[in-house]
Automatic annotation (TrEMBL), chains A, B:
Its cofactor is Mg(2+). The lineage of its organism: Bacteria, Bacillati, Bacillota, Bacilli, Bacillales. Keywords: Isoprene biosynthesis, Magnesium, Metal-binding, Transferase. It catalyses: isopentenyl diphosphate + (2E)-geranyl diphosphate = (2E,6E)-farnesyl diphosphate + diphosphate. The keyword Electron transport does not apply. It comes from Listeria fleischmannii 1991. This is Farnesyl diphosphate synthase. Its EC number is 2.5.1.10. It is an enzyme of class 2 (transferase). Coiled coil: none annotated. PANTHER family: FARNESYL DIPHOSPHATE SYNTHASE. GO terms for cellular component: cytoplasm.
Length: 293, 293
């Protein structure tokens, strides 16, 4: 087993143990708890938490300090998937090969499970007494900014409004920078705070995060054209069916693959000669551009 | 004009100015911004912010320190109204005499406007640099706890599941303690942190908040039976139509009025001989039990 694989398995397991514990409170309404648990423990690549842990590792910090912030970002990501899948939004029945929350439970419960996970994310960071209050506040602030109207939620709104019309490449980039990039960026930011990055280290990590974010989305769009339904756990061709603008249809499939490699290269370049311990960050970037799901 | 009325008008105006400013960011997607603004500035009694300011005043603190925490609690309250009104939840077309968010805009936008307001609430507290990080973290933590699965969201889930069946008085109390009480309580808590309450003061204020929360909900239930549609801005009799259990149908109308007065008296009793400057807190309690909307 490679060192990267060992790191991923170890911290994915720690994360999932923490996520599991976070929703076990006896006093949570049973159906709500079940819905929160269902989506939170539905598998998933855990890219955001792993980026956070890898960033702390790159700074030679204590990765265990990232557990609550990593759980929080995964709660935010999970809530966004539950809400995005709703009939009034992307109207998807399956996610990661299992029924979406509103199909498994009902729409009201799905909305509330999402609301509860988003709210719990902030409690998860704020109640982490192993981290000083200044750092917790920085992370709350960045998560809220990047997940909110200026970030992820705004990106989803723009995405909804962009369906059924042709977007320019600039519009597409702006949507994805907010919808996907912002939360990846927040994860790396949290890692850089918890690993005590210098200003220069933080700037390099920020470029890495930004470029990885773009590469991640281009890869998603490519997989929607070329991917395997079984591996993806959702139907391919769904972007085309919804007449969504994507990198492949704006740039051609070849052009999208070329752009993917360019952004990957920019992400890696930001880490060169940085003095950071970059093997996990580079390993995760490799996985992001080479994944088949 | 009484001193209480002057206090309310002044701090309502300051609050609304801050809420207005918070959603003016140029970079927010226009339709999302419009929906956030529409619900946030739709009037409303601003009870939670006023309780927060009144609590700081009771502690002889600087009320202006409460502006961000007050805005945040009103953002959380507003998001909860938007989501509660959705077709999958209470399915209401009107709120405060105007169309609900999903009727005015569309369901996707309403869900996202709610998500964005909830997220913005945490950014609002975290970015308030007039308050030290420890206090900000305490408020984030309490807001997240009381608004989440153990508090408001859990109460709404229990409320949804309680429709069309008879609840016991205990179940009804438990639902309202979470759905309405938790956020009122969080407001008073934030005021007590910002006003540097002693342990004893905090405990008294907590009893006040808890009793006011129950009184508030009993009053709501009574108004749904006896109130005036024009003053309420929503139809009366809606609880009966939805076959919701309420205080009047569990206790009779007379019994509910008696319970209202008892909880009011307990709230006031908690403040007696406390050394606190209690005129605004008592004034707000009076308004809560005597309101007609």
């Amino acid at each position: 087993m490679t060192d990267l694989r060992m790191f991923m398995d170890t911290y994915k397991a720690k994360l999932e143990e923490r996520l599991f514990a976070a929703v076990q409170n006896e006093a949570i309404e049973p159906k709500l708890k079940e819905a929160m648990h269902y989506s939170l423990l539905a598998g998933g690549k855990r890219i955001r938490p792993l980026l956070l842990f890898a960033t702390i590792d790159a700074l030679r910090g204590d990765k265990n300090l990232g557990l609550h912030a990593a759980s929080a970002v995964e709660m935010i990501h999970t809530y966004s998937l539950i809400h995005d899948d709703l009939p009034a939004m992307d109207d998807d029945d399956y996610r990661r090969g299992q029924l979406t929350s509103h199909k498994k439970f009902d729409e009201g419960t799905a909305i509330l499970a999402g609301d509860a996970l988003l709210t719990m994310a902030f409690s998860e960071i704020a109640s982490d007494e192993t981290i000083n209050a200044e750092k917790r506040i920085k992370i709350v602030q960045r998560y809220a900014k990047n997940a909110g109207a200026l970030g992820m939620v705004g990106g989803q709104q723009a995405d909804l409004m962009g369906e059924n019309r042709d977007l320019t490449l600039e519009e597409l980039k702006s949507i994805h920078a907010r919808k996907t990039g912002a939360l990846l960026h927040a994860s790396v930011y949290a890692g850089s705070v918890l690993g005590d990055a210098t200003q220069e280290e933080q700037e390099r990590l920020s470029v890495y995060a930004e470029q990885i974010g773009i590469a991640f989305q281009i890869c998603d769009d490519i997989l929607d054209v070329t991917g395997d339904t079984a591996k993806l756990g959702k139907e391919t061709g769904s972007d085309e069916k919804k007449q969504k603008s994507t990198y492949p249809n704006l740039l051609t499939l070849e052009g999208a693959k070329k752009a993917l490699n360019e952004h990957y290269a920019l992400a890696i370049a930001a880490l060169v000669d940085s003095g950071l311990k970059t093997d996990y960050l580079i390993g995760l970037a490799d996985l992001i551009v080479k994944r088949d799901n």
